[in-house]
């Protein structure tokens, strides 16, 4: 590669997540057992033993729902303990946050002190890892561009993140699992201070299994001896497995109930949906245990005191957290649209999105009545899961939340995850899909057919890009002569959510 700036990074040349997930599905999950040994070998090829990542004081987060939001809460609270006038003798100096997927640009996945890596630093660490891998390939008489000379996309980013954090002297790191836990690429961590499992549900069954106990088994794979383990209230069959797996590691599992200060709304969370109180409560316990592990002995032990009295730093972190694309409302006075943006890529999470949007619709009608003609618009896609089941679940949840027999939407647009009519920005390319399905709009046409079956009154359309869907919503809003904002819900794939935010930001 001649140019070595951010635009020249070659992540999208690596084998796609779709191909590796599909290969695992076809192998009957048999490839899973090789994941960690392979990842350890990749680590060694770039010059590290997994134990060296103990220097990052990692916190490991797994789960089906809420692991990204929980990680964001944790990082936001930890940031309050960074060096300041008040923190004149801090015990931590830099906080890392590794999450996935990204919404607008890949740098979001690798954050330091709640800021994505800069483009120059992203390029620097990308090519440092790239060069080490090519040198390892050449030493083994393998062509640097040969298949298998580089890890797949998510593994590469995990290696790169851990490398960057060590180079940047990060001393507390929040690491979110990608898929599962036991065989996830991030599970090379040897000694996390804390491991936590957020809400569990059915997802990624081709890799994790079709039942909740099987999924719980995978998620609990991040528990380690001598680490503190937390979870939130779970279905009994899942909690039993989590406890058994913790016992196998010689540790106790602590179940975190909602913190009273959150339940009674004495603290206004930066992420305001009701379910975020569960994620934030888990984050409180995780941070308290982590801070005690690195020397903040004045903080109460959350394994002994279930609901610690919150220090000012905790309160600030909970209130100031930012996590775009999760129950986010953007009001555009120029177009007269209130964009409601929330990723909902599983049955459980789409139901949460539906309940949240139903609350938003009800709140916009203070007298409990809805203006029949006022447009309410849905923009939806979910390319890689059972999109039709998600669409039905969204409709049912909204109907239930609104207690009405009328259609929740006047207009429905099904789009691919392609951002612009001219194509994608490189950061927004989604390789976690079947290209043929995207090109033929197969998923979108099936979704449109499903929606027309369950909702005869809505105007249903298929469009090729997110930009086109947003433009059509704006055109509808422009014809509305009544009062109040037109409500648009953008939900489904996080790739869709990220692309929508990119389009809206580009318009500014």
Task: Characterise the protein shown here.
This protein is an alpha/beta fold and 508 residues long. It folds into 2 domains: 6-320, UDP-N-acetylmuramoyl-L-alanine:D-glutamate ligase, CATH 3.40.1190; 328-507, Mur ligase, C-terminal domain (Protein-Tyrosine Phosphatase, Chain A, Alpha-Beta Complex), CATH 3.90.190.20. Helix content is 41%, strand content 12%. It has helices spanning 17-26, 35-45, 67-79, 119-139, 153-167, 205-208, 212-219, 236-248, 260-263, 276-293, 312-320, 347-364, 387-402, 435-440, 442-454, 466-478, 494-507; strands at 58-62, 95-98, 110-112, 115-116, 172-176, 194-197, 228-231, 253-255, 328-332, 337-343, 376-381, 411-414, 459-462, 486-492. It has an 8-stranded mixed sheet. The chain has a 6-stranded mixed sheet with strand order 9-10-14-11-12-13, sandwiched between helices. It is globular. The model has no long low-confidence stretch (mean pLDDT 87).
């Amino acid at each position: 590669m001649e140019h070595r700036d951010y635009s020249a990074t070659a992540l999208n040349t690596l084998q796609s997540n779709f191909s590796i997930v599909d290969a695992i599905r076809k192998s009957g999950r048999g490839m899973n057992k090789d994941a960690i040994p392979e990842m350890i070998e990749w680590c060694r090829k770039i010059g590290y033993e997994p134990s060296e990542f103990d220097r990052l004081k990692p916190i490991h987060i797994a789960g089906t729902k809420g692991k990204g939001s929980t990680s964001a809460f944790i990082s936001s609270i930890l940031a309050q303990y960074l060096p300041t006038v008040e923190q004149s003798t801090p015990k931590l100096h830099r906080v890392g946050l590794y999450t996935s997927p990204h919404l607008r640009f890949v740098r979001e996945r690798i954050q330091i002190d709640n800021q994505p890596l800069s483009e120059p630093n992203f390029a620097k660490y990308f090519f440092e890892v790239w060069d080490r891998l090519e040198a390892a390939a050449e030493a083994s008489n393998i062509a640097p561009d040969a298949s298998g000379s580089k890890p797949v996309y998510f593994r590469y980013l995990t290696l790169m993140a851990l490398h960057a954090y060590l180079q940047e002297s990060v001393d507390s790191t929040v690491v979110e699992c990608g898929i599962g836990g036991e065989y996830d690429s991030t599970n090379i961590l040897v000694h996390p201070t804390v491991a936590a499992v957020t809400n569990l549900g059915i997802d990624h069954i081709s890799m994790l299994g079709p039942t909740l106990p099987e999924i719980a088994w995978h998620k609990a794979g991040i528990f380690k001896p001598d680490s503190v383990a937390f979870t939130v209230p779970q279905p009994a069959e899942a909690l039993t497995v989590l406890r058994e797996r913790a016992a196998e590691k010689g540790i106790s599992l602590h179940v975190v109930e909602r913190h009273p200060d959150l339940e009674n709304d004495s603290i206004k969370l930066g992420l305001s949906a009701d379910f975020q109180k569960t994620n934030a409560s888990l984050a409180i316990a995780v941070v308290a245990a982590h801070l005690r592990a690195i020397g903040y002995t004045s903080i109460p032990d959350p394994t002994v005191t279930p609901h610690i009295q919150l220090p000012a730093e905790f309160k600030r972190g909970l209130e100031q957290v930012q996590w775009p694309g999760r129950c986010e409302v953007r009001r555009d006075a120029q177009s007269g649209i209130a964009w409601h943006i929330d990723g909902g890529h599983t049955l459980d999470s789409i139901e949460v999105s539906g309940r949240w949007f139903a609350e938003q619709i009800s709140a916009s009608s203070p007298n409990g009545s809805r203006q029949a003609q006022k447009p309410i618009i849905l923009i939806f896609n979910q390319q890689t899961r059972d999109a039709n089941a998600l669409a039905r679940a969204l409709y049912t949840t909204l109907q239930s939340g609104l207690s009405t027999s009328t259609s929740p939407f006047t207009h429905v647009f099904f789009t691919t995850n392609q951002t612009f009519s001219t194509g994608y920005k490189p950061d927004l390319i989604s390789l976690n899909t079947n290209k043929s399905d995207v090109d033929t709009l197969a998923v979108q046409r099936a979704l449109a057919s499903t929606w027309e079956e369950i909702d005869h009154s809505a105007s249903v359309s298929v469009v090729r890009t997110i930009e086109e869907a947003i433009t059509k919503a704006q055109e509808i809003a422009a014809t509305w002569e009544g009062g109040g904002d037109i409500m648009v819900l953008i939900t489904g794939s996080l790739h869709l959510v990220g692309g929508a935010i990119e389009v809206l930001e580009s318009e500014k």
